[in-house]
């Protein structure tokens, strides 16, 4: 059985006791992270400790008797109904929205943001893999739209953004920043206005190299959600940075190795 614990990996000195709004859950297989905002839903953000175990195995640590749904991720912005991703061959997409109960939705990443969404009234959920291309393409707003079309009310939504690379460690070209800025503000009068909107939500940070920025993709997603009408208390962002925690997370930017951690959530009803 899983139980909440304060400090995984016997490293209380690493600050794992200080994650307000987040809880490490320990079980016989290891530890995974849960967001308190989604406490009514079976979900988890898994670490590199689970390397080699795919959703078919990981799903059993969250819930029994569920169907696993996942896609072939392509760093895009397409969100599909989960029933389209229940078997091989898996479709190419980077997000899923539940269309039935007992669906276990999974996404993976190493630096990109795993985003889990839940409707506390209906039990509907969604999961997105949001890298900079996904944020520029508004993948999380697309997931919200699918849930709204199914009957979800905006005020019933809760969104958790899991461990991802932090803005201070994510250097990008200005062209990337501009594309993400347009994902936040699709119709600015001029490019600099879009960048100002990105700065305003704390997503665009300065970089000493000309033509480059530091980009916080989670802050940009937070800005998109607030522009949709979600309140700050409906959104939780994990404070952990994948690039800064080599014992906990894989990071492409840090290691240049193709390895990922998985995140999943189970629909209700």
Q: What fraction of residues sit in β-strands?
A: 25-35%
Q: What Rg is obtained from the alpha carbons, in whole angstroms?
A: 18 Å
Instruction: Provide the domain count.
Output: 2
Derived structural class: alpha+beta
Number of strands: 16
Distance between the termini: 23 Å
What is the residue-mean pLDDT, rounded to a whole number?
92
Order of helices and strands: EEEEHEEEEEEHHEEHHEEHEHE
Overall CATH class of the largest domain: Alpha Beta
The biggest sheet, with number of strands, parallel, antiparallel or mixed sense and barrel status, is: 7 strands, mixed
Low-confidence segments, given as residue ranges, are 4-15
Overall helicity: 10-25%
Assign the CATH topology of the largest domain: CNF1/YfiH-like putative cysteine hydrolases
CATH superfamily of the largest domain: CNF1/YfiH-like putative cysteine hydrolases
CATH architectural designation of the largest domain: 4-Layer Sandwich
Biggest sheet strand order reads 1-2-3-4-16-8-5
- Overall, the morphology is globular
Number of helices, where a helix is a run of at least 4 consecutive DSSP H or I residues: 7
Task: Please render the helix and strand layout as text.
Elements (H helix, E strand, L loop, with lengths): L2 E3 L16 E6 L2 E6 L7 E4 L8 H8 L4 E3 L9 E3 L13 E3 L5 E7 L3 E7 L5 E6 L1 H5 L2 H11 L7 E5 L9 E3 H11 L6 H10 L3 E2 L6 E4 L1 H12 L6 E3 L14 H4 L5 E6 L3
Parallel strand pairs: 5-8, 6-7, 11-15
Antiparallel strand pairs: 1-2, 2-3, 3-4, 4-16, 7-10, 8-16, 9-10, 9-11, 12-14, 13-14
